[in-house]
Amino acid sequence: MIRHLISAADLSRDDALLILDTAEELAQVAERPIRKLPTLRGRTVVNLFYEDSTRTRISFEAAAKRLSADVINFSARGSSVAKGESLKDTALTLEAMGADAVVVRHSASGAPHRLTRWVRGSVVNAGDGTHEHPTQALLDAFTMRRRLGRLDGLRVTIVGDVLHSRVARSNVLLLRTLGAEVTLVAPPTLLPIAVSTWPCEVGYDLDAELPKSDVVMMLRVQAERMNAAYFPTVREYSRRYGLDGNRMALLPEHAIVMHPGPMNRGVEIAADVADSPRSTIVEQVANGVSIRMAVLYLLLGGSESGTDRTEAAR
Ligand code: NCD
Q1: Do 179 and 250 reside in the same domain of the chain?
Q2: Per the confidence metrics, is the pTM higher than 0.70?
Q3: For residue 2, how far is its CA from the centre of ligand 1 (angstroms)?
Q4: Is the CB of 57 under 6 A from ligand 1?
Q5: For each successive 10 residues of the chain (314 residues), what is the average pLDDT?
Q6: Domain of 306?
Q7: CA-based, 20 to 30 A from 39: which of 46, 138, 163, 224?
Q8: CB-based contacts of 169: which residues, under 8 Å, 6+ apart?
């Protein structure tokens, strides 16, 4: 197993499957009366969040706690970062505190990679700029496999603001490793220039792609990362690239609708679609905890009896 998780491309097929299978076992912990395993007792996990987050931060915190690790939550706001402390100095402070794992979210693409040079513990990328978000891709793959029974040959359509989306990039890389076929659908202005080198197809007509899709993943329009106008109006965007009830009806019967959250209801996804039985949005959040438990467990090399039920039952 690798030591850090910076990019979905760091994972071989075997690594990725090991994480998904471990998460499947660990998911059972959530169903027990006592939702805790002693696996990471005495280990320290630091959550280092330089960018706003609801789901991801809480999810990593819950995951570390369910494995009995000590958790330190650090958010840039209210810390010495606000006084201009550099990432390196913050890292050295964490190092002095003996962090076994540092989970980092940062607005600069590449920050987690940088951090690997300054800390001895494992670094987990929880989203860096517009670059990657590998645990999101893992929880998405986990959700697809649970709902549809396989990943190999699955047709996944990812729609919307690909340009600013670390979720899209990590998903394309991981899903390719796992044998799924990905098609990106977006306005040309919201596709990265290098998309032609990505291992996926590109389309511009959502209605043409939907009937062929097993999964449709809607991306948030990331207004906070936009420094120019990428489409004429929100209404126009919604009309061409938003998923409403009529469009959802074009999907095959078994197909699922995903969104990493936070959603702009009424922009990329209509409220009735988000709340429909086909939507896996809430499941994705629950699955995120199991995936992050698996990642922390495997990176920190857990104890032999990691998922052992007898020890867990004590
Ligand atoms: C995503 C992120 O932060 O990259 N959200 C998440 O982690 N659940 C996607 C987004 O912000 O749109």
Answers
A1: yes
A2: yes
A3: 24
A4: no
A5: 94 97 94 92 94 92 96 82 79 89 95 94 96 98 98 98 98 98 97 96 97 98 85 92 98 98 96 98 97 97 48 39
A6: 8-133+285-312
A7: 138
A8: 8, 130, 131, 132, 162, 198
